[in-house]
Amino acid sequence: MPTQYGYIRVSTQEQHDDRQRIALAEAGVSSKQLFIDKQSGKDFDRPQYQRLLRKLKPGDTLVVKSIDRLGRNYAEIQEQWRILTKEIGIDICVLDMPLLDTKKDKDLTGTLIADIVLQLLSYVAETERTMIRQRQAEGIAAAKARGKTWGKPKRQLDKKFFDALAAWKAGEITCTQAAESCGMTLSNFRYHARKHA
Questions:
Q1: Kindly report the CA angle at 63 between 21 and 111, in degrees rounded to 5?
Q2: In terms of CB atoms within 10 Å, which of 5, 73, 77, 103 comes out highest?
Q3: How many CA atoms lie within 13 A of 71 on its CB side?
Q4: Which residues are identified as catalytic?
Q5: Digits of tens for pLDDT over the chain (197 positions)?
Q6: Do 48 and 56 contact (CB within 8 A), yes or no?
Q7: DSSP secondary structure letter of residue 14
Q8: 142: which residues sit within 8 A by CB, 6+ positions away?
Q9: Strand 61-64 versus strand 91-94 pairing type
């Protein structure tokens, strides 16, 4: 008996998949048949997608909310579509684009229209991914130009450190005592001591 599966993808662990879950539930996909990945759509090397591929058999249906949830790489979306529909022999239903429902219009004209729409939407999905990366890079460059920095701020070494360093070098105190006297961990004190040797 053919099974209807749903595939959900969000790009990061922090993103929510609620909209996709609701849409797939409304399309009749059982929550037991959902496969969810929380990672980029740049390629198809995703654990849940690969698990889904192993489950699919001829006659099954794969439901996704939109083509960019399947992936964001033009060539790879085309290739996966071919593998799914031709090699495995399943139907695909893209909820946001009714023209991409392989259960309908299986004649030559329907197939041609689906192929054209798929190419266009795959192109748009990859272009959007490229634009996201470009906007990120521009945002980072603008933030750097404003003086924004990332990561832990560098510790400013004060008189206490240099006094402790001098006392340690003179053999008056141990390295542990020197670190404690200037409020540093031992490894941090050693790191800065090597830099100021």
A1: 150
A2: 77
A3: 20
A4: 11
A5: 899 999 999 988 888 899 999 999 999 999 999 999 999 888 889 999 999 999 999 999 999 998 888 887 777 888 888 888 888 989 899 998 887 787 876 655 556 666 766 676 667 667 777 787 788 888 888 888 888 877 766 667 888 899 999 999 999 999 999 999 988 899 989 988 888 86
A6: no
A7: T
A8: none
A9: parallel
Q: How much of the chain is helix, strand and coil, in % rounded to 5?
A: 55, 10, 35
Domain 4-143 has CATH 3.40.50.1390: yes
- Pick the closest to residue 65 from 9, 2, 1 (CA basis): 9
> In the β-sheet with 91-94, what is the strand arrangement from edge to edge?
34-38, 4-10, 61-64, 91-94
Give the rounded distance of the alpha carbon of 74 from its chain centre: 17
φ, ψ for residue 64, nearest 5 deg: -130, 150
Q: Which two tokens stand for residue 141?
A: 């460059």
Residue intervals in the chain for CATH 3.40.50.1390: 4-143
DSSP 44-104: S--HHHHHHHHH--TT-EEEESSHHHH-S-HHHHHHHHHIIIIII--EEEETT-TTSBTTS
Rounded to 5 degrees, what angle do the CA atoms 56, 60, 63 make? 95
